[in-house]
Amino acid sequence: MYKCSNIPRSFRCIILFLCVFLVSAYPANATRPDYTIKIMPLGDSITYGYTDGSLTNDFTVGYRQKLYLDLVGMGYKIEFVGSLISGQSAIPEFDYDHEGHPGWRDDEIADNINEWLSQKPADIVLLHIGTNGLDPDPSDVETILNEIDRFSLDVIVIIAKIINRINYSAATTLFNNNVESMVLERIANGDKILIVDQESALNYTSDMADNLHPNELGYEKMANVWLNGLLSLYEDNIGTFRKGAWFLDNNGNDVWDKDVDTKIPFGSFGLKSDIPVTGDWNGNGIASVGIFRNGAWYLDDGDGIWNSAKDTTIKAGSFGMMGDKPITGDWNGNGKTKIGVFRKGVWYLDYNGNNKWDKGLDKAYSAGSFGLSTDIPITGDWNGDGKTKIGVFRKGAWYLDFDGNGQWNKNKDTTVLAGSFGLKTDIPVTGDWNGDGKTNIGVFRKGAWYLDFNGNNKLDAGDIYIPNGSFGLADDIPIVGLWKKKPF
User: Fold this and answer.
1) Which residues is 80 bridged to in the sheet?
2) Confidence (pLDDT) at 33
3) What is the rounded CA–CA span in Å between residue 202 and residue 214?
């Protein structure tokens, strides 16, 4: 992803009405995995949390306490795993299990990691190792990765470029560069690894307790780096629908990679005149494709191929009519995406998820309650409570139903003025760009993406710019979803 620094001030952009209208079909809805994620903090005394020796074991937390509390505060179900404990008396309480072994070298970790995982299985390993017995050769770190793969190829490893020292160590930087080169080769061969840069995260004048170990502020910064790495596994990805074919950015790098990303060819699921929709139809945490055709819905089971025996057909008239604008969202917060339509300013939401309109059970918001008939409907979890809300895009301005009651209230709901984030000819998109559990806004402009990464509803240097041609062409229809758990 590219951070915006110099965003073009204006674009000549001609978009067919149909293309603008289609944006209602593919909102991204911030969701959380509905299972406990087991994370193993792995390393030496830096993982343990040593500072200057003033803290006893039961109060030593390092980066682990803040990281755990941040993740839980965002709605994730987290369990730290490992054979060691430290920080059990710290307040606020957190899960204090880990595998941070003070004084240990990378070869010693390699000798034991398979056994530790066998006893305490993990979904994700956070690896910071190499400070002790520093050697530019990354072979022992590679052995650690081999041993993790020997336990299970499904374990995700987030590996750090390790922190440096108060007295700068060129050998540490060389070690980090060598580890990165080795890891990039493994990633290219399909290994489930993500690299994060802890070396650049710290100020070695103010963030260190001694030559090797961070102080409290330094550990807080380390926690933030781990957090961003973890969140990147669960943020929404982009995609496009092009004349009946789908292109999905599986690995989330915002560049089309034909050997990694998914292409669903024309005719496999949809025709060029269809309206694309996406959603987690079965609640497995991964978005699938679908289409809206003349009032009927066709929803995929996840394989990208239409199969009338396995996929879902909702006949025209059951929930939608020709001319409706389709919308999708998790209206009741049960983890599954449901359907809905926007019809001349009126919203109809399949709240109970049975794909039929049930008066009294499903939700309807009357014309004028939230939006005009000429608005482009959008949806998202604006406040992070796990339920999808409605909103509209009107000539470059955004109106978001922040409190989720389906009624416009200028004192409670969110207004983003035209020009703050988008032009009237833009196609609006929504998604959880940073993995924090809240849906943010964005626009698709003649093949380029502008995504409000920092969530402040203004286009600025903290946001994401994906240039035309990286992932999408000017005539494509943008779509958003968590196609696969990243980075795979």
Assistant:
1) 39
2) 62
3) 8
Nearest to 329 by CA among 26, 47, 49: 26
H or E segment and range at residue 172 = helix 170-188
DSSP H or E run through 398: strand 397-400
How distant, in Å, are the alpha carbons of 7, 279, 392 from that of 398?
A: 20, 22, 6
Answer whether 249's CB lies under 8 Å from 237's CB: yes
Which alpha helices (H) appear in 45-166, and where do they start and end?
A: 45-48, 64-73, 106-119, 139-151
Q: Report the b/e string of 174-213 with b at 16+ CB within 10 A.
A: ebbebbeebbeebbeeebbbbbbebbebbebeebbbeebb
d(CA 151, CA 141): 16
Cβ burial of 374 (10 Å; 0-12, 13-18, 19+) is exposed
Is there a contact between 45 and 83 (Cβ–Cβ < 8 Å)? no
Structure-token pair, residue 423: 């032009």
- Residue 380, strand partner residues: 389
What number of residues does the chain have?
A: 488
Tens digit of each residue's pLDDT (9 = 90 or more) over 106-127: 999 999 999 999 999 999 999 9
With tokens 């390790």, the residue in question is: 162
Both structure tokens of 162:
């390790």
Residue whose C-alpha is closest to residue 300's, from 319, 323, 276 = 276
Sign of CA dihedral 127, 130, 132, 133: positive
386 φ, ψ to 5°? Answer: 95, 0
Q: What is the pTM of this model?
A: 0.71
Q: For residue 220, which phi and psi values (nearest 5 degrees)?
A: -60, -40
CA 443 to CA 423: how far, in whole Å?
A: 9
Q: Which residues, in sequence order, are bridge partners of residue 431?
A: 440
- Antiparallel, parallel or unpaired: β 275-279 and 288-293: antiparallel
* b/e 137-157 (16+ beta carbons within 10 angstroms → b): ebebbbbbbebbbebeeebbb
For residues 218 and 221, give the distance between their C-alpha atoms in angstroms, rounded to a whole number: 5
Mean pLDDT of 187-208: 93
Backbone angles phi, psi at 363, to 5 degrees: -110, 140
Query: For 270-320, how does the pLDDT look when each residue is reduced to its tens digit (9 = 90+)?
Result: 999 999 999 999 988 889 999 999 999 999 999 999 999 999 999 999 999
Contact (Cβ atoms closer than 8 angstroms) between residue 264 and residue 279: no
Type of residue found at 268? S
Amino acid at 426: D
Give residue 398's identity as a one-letter amino acid code: W
Amino acid residing at 92: P
DSSP for 453-480, written as a single string: TT-SSS--TTSEEE-TTTS--TTPEEEE
Within 273-383, where are the H helices? none
With a cut of 70, say whether residue 370 has pLDDT above it: yes
